[in-house]
Amino acid sequence: xxxxxxxxxxxxxxxxxxxxxxxxxxxxxxxxxxxxxxxxxxxxxxxxxxxxxxxxxxxxxxxxxxxxxxxxxxxxxxxxxxxxxxxxxxxxxxx
Length: 95
Hints:
66% of the residues lie in helices and 9% in strands. The chain is mostly helical. Strands 1-3-2 form a 3-stranded antiparallel β-sheet.
């Protein structure tokens, strides 16, 4: 399989971004966490990205967690996990 230079560049950029987010996740886990209501703003308020995010959550590619035990506790998502899921989908489409 031949990979074009632009495809390789996109894959390496995704890997570098994930590496930086992984470092943030390990050094300061609180900065890696977003409430479900904050995810849309972090994605840029793009309805297409929001729909993709929702689909990935339904498929189990992105998993949320609750910090509290209350029924009304908000779900939190990891920026690293979100970026990793989007990068995996993007890399799959590039190949």
